[in-house]
Amino acid sequence: PVIYKGTVTGGYTHATGNSHLTSASLLGDFVARSEQFRLTINGRYVYGDQDNTLTARNARGTIKMDFFVTKRFFWFASAYFEQDTFQDLKLRTALASGPGYQFIEKGDYASRWLKDMTLYAEAGLSYFNEDFTTAPDESSVRGKWAVRLNWPILDESATFYHFQELYPSLQKTSDYYLTMDNGVRFRIYEGFVSGIQVTTRYNSAPAQGTGTTDNLYLITLGYNFDTTL
68 pairs with which residues across the strands? Predict the structure, then answer.
């Protein structure tokens, strides 16, 4: 059987009068899992406008397929896409493949605090390409390292999660790109949830005129579904 689970959350602010402010965010993740395959899709869009001046606009999407060779060991193929107006970035693309391992699977622990925890890590090679609006475009062969932790507690009343992806250059070791999500999601009623998330992006070699680090703080409300429950 195939098990489906995922979450869609969003946030919105709008002010008129003496100040004009609009901000919106939309986040989604979806996982389909069978005994041998796992499909993971993630997406995020953030927009901000103050007094008719654009203050934020970025988007990210990932899709990954895992083929389980054994119960724990798998081989992955993934695609990462990102756009950010204020990073001078038209499109960042990373296509990667390599081995991974499921260190903790749901049900490994009997404790009510740990019984639903999952953790996996993966590493491989990637083709990394950045198309900029004004800066010269860049492409390189890089490594890829990723870790995903999902830790529901108290029958998923609260879920802590951590997800990071690191793309170090193989030609220049000081050149790397890191994206990381840390957050907690609370169940409000049945499938309805609220969440707090901090997203950090670090580029050791950013486009000229842009900074190395971007932090995004989000408070969201949405819906979670899980066919295993």
Answer: 74
Structure tokens at 171: 């030609």
For residue 120, give Cα distances in angstroms to 29, 73, 103, 105, 152: 17, 10, 5, 8, 15
Q: What type of residue is 217?
A: Y
Length of the chain: 229
Please check the confidence at residue 19 and state whether its pLDDT lies above 80: no
pLDDT digits (tens, 9 = 90+) for 151-164: 999 888 999 999 99
What is the distance between the alpha carbons of residues 135 and 85, in angstroms, rounded to a whole number?
A: 13
- Spatial distance between the Cα atoms of 78 and 179, rounded to a whole number of angstroms: 15
22/19 Cα distance (integer angstroms)? 10
Contact 122, 76 (CB under 8 A): yes
The DSSP result for 45-57, as a single string, is: EEEEEETTEEEEE
pLDDT tens figures, 77-104: 999 999 999 999 999 999 999 999 999 9
Residue 229 has pLDDT above 80, yes or no: no
Beta bridge partners of 151: 160
